[in-house]
Write a structure and sequence with these properties.
The chain has 17 helices and ten strands. It is an alpha/beta fold.
Length: 421
């Protein structure tokens, strides 16, 4: 693994490259299949990976771990490294915390924890990240359990941000960790916050002045609102070309990269626009979960046909289990509250059940009942000389390849190495 290509060098290369434009991709680690798919295509096309794990996906056991194969930070890294050894991975990946900070776990927000306690838990989570080799930490203190507080005051965001960076740097020093930690600040909120260009630049200025004065690292990424907005399995936002170019110009003026969140389900013409607009990196997460769920549903269609023919005698129960667990995960509540009678979940229409399954299936892949039925599906298809798991992995690679092509990422690792040697 080319560990000497650190994330700071990679991002600075992309930000400052004049002759050739690139955009990096942050990917949510939705499943073990997706880890394998992403590592395979990274090896084949020579570009660095950024795994952006939310606290709900990957976190310390003391907080309940994460829904991605029940992993804490240590087991997450071990799983990646095991796949790397298996496929002889020779590129580089970065462990990144996405939306770290107070109230960023659903339970902490639902429990309406007081600020002091929420900040302490956020710090403990960051500490586990640091001790387990994370490369980039997203400092995002913009959540608030008060439903009346739609937008956290920008001064509060700033004060919490610098407090958390100072804490993380102290942990690094206390434990003698020589590797520098990179930071990402800001959020993709579509109202208030850093939405306006003036507020975006003012925030960067304040961060730069404070970090310089206090001997802290300047964040590598500043998140900006480009107009994207993910809802259900679509991007319902209005990608703003003009605003995106202005945001990237502002960010570059301060030597940092513009990071776009909510990049799921964008059309290829919008993806291709990222290069000339100067967007340094974009995050995609739930879209890959939807791709994997849809691939499993396609395989179930095959299994159903051969069960009808009597060739598969004991078909899996995956469709029913996946649908049930997706519905009762309740992860869809924030998107479908108005459309769903939550007092009668068993009475949902077939269309609504399918929509919820495609949206939330990935939350259930590690559930024992779902995992067992997936293995049964694979075993049944194997009798037909169909490699079901390889089909799922290849579908995920197809989706990633689109981003690699549109973002000009093929060969990026070697180009960074050459420039930094």
């Amino acid at each position: 693994m080319k560990n000497h290509v650190n994330i700071t060098d990679a991002v600075k290369f992309v930000v400052n490259s004049e002759d050739e434009k690139f955009t990096m991709l942050g990917i949510g680690p939705m499943s073990e299949n997706f880890l394998r798919a992403s590592l395979e295509i990274s090896k084949e096309q020579d570009f660095p990976l950024m795994y952006i794990a939310s606290r709900n996906q990957i976190d310390a056991d003391k907080f309940g771990a994460g829904y991605v194969f029940g992993a804490d930070q240590k087991r997450f890294k071990e799983k990646i490294d095991a796949i790397c050894d298996e496929i002889d991975y020779d590129n580089v990946y970065y462990l990144c915390r996405d939306h770290g900070g107070p109230w960023q776990r659903d339970k902490e927000r639902n429990d309406h924890l007081p600020e002091a306690q929420a900040m302490e838990l956020a710090k403990e989570s960051y500490k586990e990240d640091i001790l387990n080799g994370f490369d980039l930490l997203h400092i995002d203190p913009t959540k608030d359990p008060d439903e009346m507080c739609k937008v956290v005051d920008i001064d509060v965001v700033f004060n919490r941000t610098v407090e958390l960076i100072e804490y993380c740097e102290q942990v690094r020093k206390d434990y003698g960790i020589e590797k520098e930690i990179a930071y990402e600040v800001g959020t993709e909120e579509t109202s208030g916050g850093l939405t306006s260009l003036d507020r975006y630049e003012d925030f960067i200025k304040r961060i730069q002045e404070y970090t310089t004065e206090h001997g802290l690292p300047m964040p590598l990424f500043i998140v900006g609102q480009t107009g994207t907005l993910t809802r259900l399995t679509k991007n319902v936002g209005h990608f703003d070309y003009k605003n995106s170019k202005k945001l990237s110009t502002i960010a570059k003026k301060y030597g940092v990269g513009l990071k776009e969140h909510n990049g799921d389900y964008l059309s290829e013409d919008k993806l291709m626009a990222h290069l000339p607009l100067g967007i340094t990196a974009m995050n995609v997460a739930p879209a890959f979960g939807t791709i994997e769920t849809r691939a499993l549903l396609e395989l179930l269609n095959v299994e159903d046909k051969f069960a009808d023919l009597g060739i598969i005698e004991n078909p899996s129960n995956l469709r029913e289990v996946l649908t049930h667990d997706s519905i009762y995960s309740m992860k869809w509540k924030k998107w479908l509250t108005d459309e769903v009678d939550m007092s009668n979940l068993e009475g949902l229409s077939d269309d609504t059940k399918e929509q919820i399954t495609e949206l939330c299936g990935h939350y259930t892949f590690s559930n024992e009942d779902v995992a067992a039925e997936i293995e049964k599906l694979y075993a049944n298809l194997d009798k037909l000389d169909i490699d079901g798991q390889r089909y799922v992995i290849d579908k995920l690679k197809e989706e990633m390849e689109k981003h690699v092509r549109c973002f000009n990422m093929e060969g990026l690792t070697s180009k960074i190495e050459k420039a930094c040697s």
